[in-house]
Amino acid sequence: MTKFQILKNLAVVSFGFFSLFTAFISISNLQTSLNIDDGVGPGSLSIIYGALVLSCMFLPPIVIAHLGCKWTIAISMTGYILYMGANMHAIWALMAPAAVLLGLGAAPLWSAKCTYLTQTGVWYAKITNQSKDAVINKFFGIFFMLFQASQISGNLVSSLVFSKNNTELNLTDDVLQGCGANFDPTQTTNNTNLERPDQNKVYIVCGVYLGFAVIAAVIIALFLDKIDLKKDKNTKPSLSLLIGTFRHLATSPAQILLIPLTMYSGVEQAFFSGDFTRSYVTCSIGIWNVGYIAICYGIVDAICCFTFGRLVQYVGHIPFFALAAVLHGSVQVTLLLWLPDPDMIYIYYILAGLWGMGDAVIQTQINALYGFLFTENTEAAFANYRLWESCGFIFAFAYNDYIATYIKLYVCMGVLSVGMMGYTAVEFLQRSKAGKSYDISKN
């Protein structure tokens, strides 16, 4: 490919995912507030990531070998389309099958995307005579900038459609005491903010999201160029694929050490979309504010993804991971101590923005780190990435309806601490292996 073709394809992949996750991220943010009857909302999210775990073990190498990266991405998007449609009538009979199909397609989707960006990034580095790690970081930074920007468009839709006048908030102090870290989903409450919106508004929101998902698949199918990875098209489903997935894990100390941090990526995203949105925002200031606050999160996340992806080549990975640990750790302590107050709405935005800044580090730097450390085995590495990140999601959504929010915050703190210790060990291993004293991002 020429430089122009590579950059064009980077734009196509990024805008395709922007459109797809305009729908999915936004509907995910609403699941614990919108579809709480019989636990269908968080339950369907847990099913998605459970199916994704199984998919990570078997499907990515097979699907990519037979379809190639382009058609793997396009076809995998159909599961997201079905899930958007199922949300129009959110019952288990529709949501569960749609969630399974989405989860099965998600692992090939993300593995194909990561393989595509990594491979084209390597080609671009050769053409421009740049460092592979620097180019891969830039590509992932650009991708995640647009990916996180999808929260702006999607969440704006939900807030505008569900909008109400804030003067309708008539919560007593006793009701507010049950929000925030004190929120307990097992306890009944007379909080009117937690009631489901009018069904006609739900149809409008889900219809718009369905349209975005369809547009995403069309963008990829029409405009993304194929790349030849010289994969064996005779690859068939077998236990050897499962063994191969874990062989990479068993033979790579760095992969093992990165498991807790990779799981934290899922835990922290699940906390924001499932617990912060319900326990703090919906509970105290209404579901119509979820979108606006998530937009703040998305804008900060998008800007930081782009900025951090470019700056890492100058300062290395270490300062950014340290920044993420400080940001998320500080916000988690604040959320433990702070009682949500509708009269201080700016605090919701500040906390969401700081969480988004930390998430930008987690998303860009872990992806880039995997791409750099495991360049020779990207499919297995990124399959492991999605596997362990999905375990974090499953873990978080599985207990969503059963324990109080303050316990979930302690879980976040614990996983973050262990994850950062594992990353630190990876840095020491890489320095020892290279026999050099500078950051692995500069090798």
Automatic annotation (TrEMBL):
Q: Which Pfam families match?
A: UNC-93 (PF05978)
What's the protein here called?
Answer: UNC93-like protein
Looking at the UniProt entry, the stretches that span the membrane are 7-27, 47-69, 90-110, 202-224, 245-267, 287-308, 320-339, 345-362, 406-426
- Keyword Membrane belongs to the record: yes
Where in the cell is the protein located? Membrane
What is the protein's membrane topology class?
Answer: Multi-pass membrane protein
Q: InterPro entries of this UniProt entry?
A: Ion_channel_UNC-93, MFS_trans_sf, UNC-93_regulatory
The record's GO CC annotations read:
membrane
Q: Does the keyword Acetylation apply?
A: no
Q: Which residues form a coiled coil?
A: none
Recite the UniProt keywords alphabetically: Glycoprotein, Membrane, Transmembrane, Transmembrane helix
Q: Matching SUPFAM superfamilies, A to Z?
A: MFS general substrate transporter
Its domain of life reads: Eukaryota
Can you tell me which family this protein belongs to? Answer: Belongs to the unc-93 family.
